[in-house]
Amino acid sequence: MFVSKKEKIILDVDTGHDDAIAILVAAKSDKIDLRGITVVAGNQTLPKTLKNTLDICDFANIDVPVYAGMHKPLVRNQLEVSEVHGDSGLGDIPFPDTTKEAESKHAVNFIIEEALRSDGELILVPTGTLTNIAMALNLEPGIKDKIKKIVLMGGACGAGNATPSAEFNIYTDPEAAKVVFESQVPIVMTGLDVTYQALADEKVKERITKLDNRVANLTLKLLELFGETYREFYGFEHPPVHDPCTVAKIIDDDVFTTKKMRVDIETSSELTRGRTVCDFHNRTGKAANAEVAVDLDKDRLWDIVIESLSKY
């Protein structure tokens, strides 16, 4: 079911390869009103994720304000960056010197202000560590009643990727994730159970190649670099594109199936820190606090991605 009106969103990113594709898709969808892009440390340090975001927007002529946010987790000093996205966060792709600059306002302040004026229509779409979102909720708890929902990439019902138990975005700042999942804001959790199904196989790459525009060609380079690291670290034949799944869900609600359940975040265990404990069978009896993605319509996803890429 495609949305009938434009949804107001803030895309909150730690721009690596798949965040970049999420930005490209959101910016060209006629179902989305992209109010701004907020940036957080995660896949790489904040200066690098901010530069990557500005580079992608400048390259693709995306005229959307970009705001720098939190440079480290809420309570942890150590920032753990992802090996999967390399030293720059976007591999060795050369970009021209960007003329686009970040706004002077802090990302957290932008999120708060935009939420307060939204009349309950704003959707937050974090595709990285949840630090910016959690800090906004902590500083201004009143925004929880102004946010329509949070559609996030993170977590897993099953195995993790940062550790055997935890997915990277949640593992990097589990305290922030706990704030978000306990906020009472409606949550759609797009975790590894679904995003690992979003594989950019040869058929997908052929479709993107046929578009033959500079942004589609950039996307192919991103997929190639991402694919190399996924083969090295995880043994995947084709790279999964985690982050565009969140944007696709907003554009077409039927792109994946969800199940309502209770999700709690482990913050203290050395063994399972950052695990999203998904009560799939309601064993605890706790009220559900999230819709958790359990199955993906892969063809529907790629139709959405390629339609946006065709507009560049």
TrEMBL record:
<dbReference type="Pfam" id="PF01156">
    <property type="entry name" value="IU_nuc_hydro"/>
</dbReference>
<dbReference type="GO" id="GO:0005829">
    <property type="term" value="C:cytosol"/>
</dbReference>
<dbReference type="InterPro" id="IPR023186">
    <property type="entry name" value="IUNH"/>
</dbReference>
<dbReference type="GO" id="GO:0006152">
    <property type="term" value="P:purine nucleoside catabolic process"/>
</dbReference>
<dbReference type="InterPro" id="IPR001910">
    <property type="entry name" value="Inosine/uridine_hydrolase_dom"/>
</dbReference>
<feature type="domain" description="Inosine/uridine-preferring nucleoside hydrolase">
    <location>
        <begin position="9"/>
        <end position="303"/>
    </location>
</feature>
<keyword id="KW-0378">Hydrolase</keyword>
<protein>
    <submittedName>
        <fullName>Nucleoside hydrolase</fullName>
    </submittedName>
</protein>
<dbReference type="InterPro" id="IPR036452">
    <property type="entry name" value="Ribo_hydro-like"/>
</dbReference>
<dbReference type="GO" id="GO:0008477">
    <property type="term" value="F:purine nucleosidase activity"/>
</dbReference>
<dbReference type="InterPro" id="IPR015910">
    <property type="entry name" value="I/U_nuclsd_hydro_CS"/>
</dbReference>
<dbReference type="GO" id="GO:0045437">
    <property type="term" value="F:uridine nucleosidase activity"/>
</dbReference>
<keyword id="KW-0326">Glycosidase</keyword>
